[in-house]
């Protein structure tokens, strides 16, 4: 036997291993690694799981059998009706607990058992059915339509001597079983006899193998079973440690207990007279699984326990929504979302709570309107405040700044309803406006405007801030001032007649002001004289009368555009342009003159033209001017010629003595000779014209 602590398996001589492999069988003679399990190659096992599921073991090379497949697969139930759910591959077969519904073998009914694996059980229904031979009818299970009534057939056989001894059967009875060649009880001799005679014994030894399988029956040919083997033999016990002579049919077991360790490597065999092939450990493992809910139900084994095959129902709070998860996952997985409405009773004063889905923990705060009746008669419109969280203060006084502040504590308590906020139309004290005010503060108020009521003067209004007014005369209009209003202390500000600059001598009063009797000091139209006129006369006069009153009755001192003085009496506005002053009008040469009205000259209506004499004098004057111009030109030419000749003489060296002066005799022109005779008559004519 192999003495390896991880093996301890007894091999036959022909099966004794001659090569050393790791546990997974990939590496021959694996090297020792202190970080790995002894005899392990450190690679992934990759052996197929048993029973085979298509996956391979992903653990590192390990001793013992591979654990059940831990992969999660999506699989449906046995009857294929439920939706696929994720489950471990090793426990992927599951039942939805719904009726199976598959048609049973009877072909008439459906399986009513909960969803199950394998074939359906026989139909449990009862129906009337005939037996095989058709003699009897009885109520039997629908699953076994063929049955035998228990009566012997009794039909005569073809031999004519015997009847059929078969129990209720179908079809022909067949030939007589005693016809043809028959053997003796030891089956060594055969005889041909009529069916009415029995086969005799042959007298030879029986020689049949006994139950021990070693010896043969030593009796003579006989009917019935052979006796037990009574020969004495030397037997070895099952463990092979003791021998003893005893009858062959008795087994020999010694009292020695096996001291080998079973395959769990924890417990001894302790079986009496063990043959060496110790059975698997019959004790339960009992170790707590990874789920921490169950213990390992398998027999005592080596290595880690298999994952828990159980599934756990994770329910919502109301329990109507359920999901199945592998055992142990219920602590980390979130509960399913339930679509059912929460059925908890309300904790506030409302008869029903707001609709919300099933949940864990406390229900959310009620958001319905409070609707409690307030003292004013209205209903509280705010959200329900029966379970409000209120922060508690002053419960713990810190010992000093070094102490960490504790988290604030909240208590759940019912708060009183807030003041009523329903808008109520309320009129202000002075009856100026109607404003909606909250019900809890609905009382007459001051709108901060001026009172505005008409005072006794009938001209001004009360300037006090909006206040309560006592109505003295109930029949009077609502705009009359009351005793609480202010008294008018203003001067009379009524508009004065047009042109009156004086104020009313009375204080602010109702009705019209009295006539103004004061004198006005004003200047006349020409602004030269000061006039004193009674204000009443001036303001009551029309335009013509005002024009006469303001006039000083003297000639207007204003100057017309023509330069003459206005001939009108003192008047307003611009002076008239039709000047009547006589002025002298002359022709262009100033020789002729005529007296004409000034306004006609300014308008360009009359002009004085020159006569023939004036034209003749103009012609002569022009001739004289031309002659003078020609004489001046000739004189300039002679002067320039004389200067040129003098310059040339100096250049030629014809200088005379310094004391002798150059005398250049210049001949006088005709203009110089006769200009005095011409100019004297012209000056005389000019003087006459002026």
From TrEMBL:
Q: Does the keyword Zinc apply?
A: yes
Question: What stretch or stretches form a coiled coil here?
Answer: 610-657
Secretion signal span: none
Database matches in SMART domains: ZnF_NFX
Record's keyword annotation contains Cell inner membrane: no
InterPro entries recorded? NFX1_fam, Znf_NFX1
Report domain NF-X1-type positions.
Answer: 53-71, 106-125, 159-178, 212-231, 239-260, 264-283, 291-310, 348-368, 376-422, 457-490, 500-518, 562-581
Keywords from the named record: Coiled coil, Metal-binding, Repeat, Zinc, Zinc-finger
Alphabetical GO CC annotations of the entry are:
nucleus
> What PANTHER family is this protein classified in?
NF-X1-TYPE ZINC FINGER PROTEIN NFXL1, NUCLEAR TRANSCRIPTION FACTOR, X-BOX BINDING 1 NFX1
User: What family name appears in the similarity comment?
Assistant: Belongs to the NFX1 family.
What name does the UniProt record give this protein? NFXL1 protein
According to its UniProt entry, this protein's organism is Atlantisia rogersi
């Amino acid at each position: 036997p192999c003495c390896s602590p991880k093996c301890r398996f007894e091999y036959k001589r022909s099966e004794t291993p001659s090569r050393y492999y790791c546990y997974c069988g990939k590496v021959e003679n694996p090297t020792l690694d202190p970080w790995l399990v002894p005899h392990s190659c450190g690679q992934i096992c990759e052996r197929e799981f048993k029973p085979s599921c298509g996956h391979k073991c992903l653990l590192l090379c390990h001793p013992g059998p591979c654990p059940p497949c831990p992969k999660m697969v999506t699989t449906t139930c046995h009857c294929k009706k439920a939706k696929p759910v994720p489950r471990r591959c090793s426990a992927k077969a599951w039942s939805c607990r719904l009726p199976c519904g598959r048609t049973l073998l009877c072909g008439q009914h459906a399986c009513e058992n909960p969803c199950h694996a394998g074939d359906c059980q026989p139909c449990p229904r009862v129906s009337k059915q005939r037996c095989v031979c058709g003699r009897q009818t009885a109520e039997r299970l629908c699953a076994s339509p063929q049955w035998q009534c228990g009566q012997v057939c009794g039909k005569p056989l073809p031999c004519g001597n015997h009847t059929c001894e078969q129990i209720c059967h179908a079809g022909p009875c067949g030939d007589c079983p005693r016809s043809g060649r028959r053997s003796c009880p030891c089956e060594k001799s055969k005889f041909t006899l009529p069916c009415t005679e029995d086969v005799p014994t042959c007298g030879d030894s029986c020689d049949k193998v006994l139950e021990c399988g070693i010896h043969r029956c030593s009796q003579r040919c006989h009917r019935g079973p052979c006796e037990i083997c009574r020969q004495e033999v030397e037997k070895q016990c099952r463990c092979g440690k003791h021998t003893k002579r005893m009858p062959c049919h008795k087994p020999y077991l010694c009292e020695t207990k096996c001291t080998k360790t079973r395959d769990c490597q924890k417990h001894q065999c302790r079986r009496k007279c063990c043959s060496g092939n110790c059975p698997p450990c019959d004790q339960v493992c009992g170790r707590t699984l990874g789920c921490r809910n169950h213990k390992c139900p398998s027999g005592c084994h080596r290595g880690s326990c298999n994952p828990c095959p159980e599934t756990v129902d994770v329910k919502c709070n109301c329990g109507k929504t359920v999901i199945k998860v592998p055992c142990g996952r219920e602590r980390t997985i979130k509960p399913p979302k339930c679509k059912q409405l929460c059925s908890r009773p309300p904790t506030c004063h409302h008869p029903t709570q707001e609709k919300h889905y099933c949940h864990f923990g406390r229900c959310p705060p009620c958001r319905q309107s409070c609707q409690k009746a307030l003292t004013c008669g209205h209903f509280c419109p705010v959200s329900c405040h029966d379970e409000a969280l209120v922060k508690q203060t002053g419960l713990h006084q810190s010992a000093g700044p070094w102490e960490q502040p504790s988290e604030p504590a909240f208590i759940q308590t019912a708060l009183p309803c807030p003041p009523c906020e329903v808008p109520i139309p309320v009129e202000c004290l002075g009856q100026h406006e109607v404003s909606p005010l909250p019900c809890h503060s609905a009382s007459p108020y001051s709108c901060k405007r001026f009172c505005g009521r008409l005072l006794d003067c009938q001209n001004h209004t009360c300037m006090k801030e909006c206040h309560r007014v006592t109505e003295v005369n109930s029949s009077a209009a609502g705009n009359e001032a009351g005793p609480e209003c202010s008294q008018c202390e203003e001067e009379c500000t009524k508009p004065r007649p047009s042109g009156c600059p004086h104020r009313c001598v009375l204080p602010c009063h109702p009705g019209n002001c009295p006539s103004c009797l004061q004198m006005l000091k004003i200047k006349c139209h020409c602004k030269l004289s000061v006039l004193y006129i009674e204000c009443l006369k001036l303001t009551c006069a029309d335009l013509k009368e005002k024009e006469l009153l303001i006039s000083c009755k003297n000639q207007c001192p204003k100057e017309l555009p023509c330069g003459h003085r206005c001939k009108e009496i003192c008047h307003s506005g611009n002076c008239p342009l039709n000047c009547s002053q006589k002025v002298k009008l002359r022709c262009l040469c100033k020789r002729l003159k005529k007296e004409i009205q000034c306004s006609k000259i300014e308008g360009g209506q009359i002009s004085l033209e020159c006569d023939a004499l004036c034209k003749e004098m103009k012609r002569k004057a022009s001739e004289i001017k031309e002659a003078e111009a020609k004489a001046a030109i000739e004189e300039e030419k002679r002067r320039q010629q004389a200067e040129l000749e003098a310059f040339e003489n100096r250049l030629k060296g014809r200088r005379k003595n310094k004391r002798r002066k150059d005398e250049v005799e210049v001949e006088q022109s005709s203009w110089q000779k006769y200009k005095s005779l011409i100019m004297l008559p012209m000056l005389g004519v000019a003087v006459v014209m002026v």
